[in-house]
Design goal:
It is an enzyme of class 1 (oxidoreductase). This is 3-hydroxybutyryl-CoA dehydrogenase. The chain is of the alpha/beta class. The protein contains 11 helices and 8 strands. Strands 3-2-1-4-5-6-7-8 form an 8-stranded mixed sheet, sandwiched between helices. α1 (about 15-25) crosses α2 (about 35-55) and α10 packs across α11 (about 260-270). Bound molecules: acetoacetyl-coenzyme A and nicotinamide-adenine-dinucleotide (NAD).
């Protein structure tokens, strides 16, 4: 089996930076790429802060922290992917933008390289179709916050090879994560269930069933969820939540997946949740 040693993560946002952290912590070299250098720099700052907390809590030594940081380099040039064994894409949840990226990656990356997507909902089979290596394209769906959450949903596209699947399964284990295999359907398993619940919580708010805090407290105290669904939506990003609902609605064709108009309105207003300072709650 190929030994994956050099990776490039594309998208230095909340997911991309978390993925870069766990890859580097597992001993591999990683390039963190973003079209906007300010984002990858911010991502590196988040990684550093997470590691400082690990050192303070004696989960890592200072030397381990320094070694992890030394394995991460920043980039805003896709050509930096010409020597990598694998790419994990974590850019905006939009098929058009991802398709353009995968076409470029297919030209730049070495023939043996695996191209993985961290998409929350989009079809891996379709993403793979924009490349000449559909057998080496796979979904590697990390959960937020990446350094904490154990699950990686591994999604096989129709043409993903078994070898590619095994490489990714092995990589997930090297990162101390638990890979779970699912097939290529809109939203996979995780977001078909989670986002339908979140969207229903937004409908509860929209229809005046209860106040936002009450909706969240019901789910926290009544169902033992660590966060209420509205706070979790803010944490994920309301733009990402809306994009996922659109994929579920269009892909599964059932009106039960229609995005709540209130979710649309918030996204249109630029209220994207925690990352923009305002969503269902105010973070300023
Ligand atoms: N990055 C790194 N570490 C973090 C973190 C972050 N953003 N947030 C919290 N942590 C760590 C903290 O360091 C803390 O550990 P220590 O105290 O030992 O240092 C630990 O997690 C617990 O954090 P807190 O005590 O601050 O808070 P908490 O107990 O409420 O836990 C939480 C925070 C882990 C985020 C928890 O609230 C939780 O599990 N929430 C639900 C998360 C969830 O559902 N994620 C899935 C989202 S959906 C998705 O990812 C898929 C998609 O496609 C949309
Ligand atoms: P984010 O908005 O925090 O970050 C996205 C980053 O991608 C930004 O820094 C942006 O500058 C960069 N970017 C956009 N287009 C680019 C391009 N063409 N090339 C390079 N960089 C580009 O988003 P996020 O929450 O990190 O989500 C990223 C992906 O991960 C999405 O596909 C999302 O569905 C998925 N995902 C999100 C979560 C979550 O909870 N937020 C969980 C799992 C998966």
């Amino acid at each position: 089996m190929m030994d994956i040693q050099r990776l490039m993560i594309i998208g230095g946002g909340q997911m991309g930076s978390g993925i870069a952290q766990v890859v580097a912590a597992a001993g591999m070299n990683v390039i963190l790429n973003d079209i906007d250098p300010a984002y990858s720099l911010k991502g590196l700052g988040t990684i550093r802060n997470n590691l400082i907390r690990d050192v303070e809590k004696k989960r890592k030594s200072q030397a381990e922290m320094d070694a992890i940081l030394a394995r991460i380099s920043l980039s805003s040039d896709l050509e930096d992917g010409r020597n990598v064994d694998m790419v994990i894409e974590a850019i905006v949840e939009n098929m058009q933008i991802k398709s353009e990226l995968f076409k470029k990656l297919d030209l730049i990356c070495p023939q043996h390289a695996i191209l993985a997507s961290n998409t929350s909902s989009l079809a891996i089979t379709e993403i793979a179709s924009f490349t000449k290596r559909p057998d080496q394209v796979i979904g590697m769906h990390f959960m937020n916050p990446v350094p904490v959450m154990k699950l990686i949903e591994v999604i096989r596209g129709l043409r993903t090879s078994h070898e590619t699947y095994l490489l990714v399964e092995n990589l997930a284990k090297r990162m101390d994560k638990v890979p779970i295999e699912v097939n290529d359907f809109p939203g996979f398993v995780s977001n078909r269930i989670l986002l339908t619940m979140i969207n229903e919580a937004v409908f509860c708010l929209y229809e005046g069933v209860a106040a936002r805090e009450s909706i969240d407290e019901v789910m926290k105290l009544g169902m033992n969820h660590p966060m209420g669904p509205l706070a979790l939506a803010d944490f994920i990003g309301l733009d990402t939540c809306l994009a996922i609902m659109e994929v579920l609605h269009e892909g599964l064709g059932d009106s039960k997946y229609r995005p709540c108009p209130l979710l649309r309105k918030y996204v249109a207003a630029g209220w994207l949740g925690k990352k923009s300072g305002r969503g269902f709650y105010d973070y300023k």
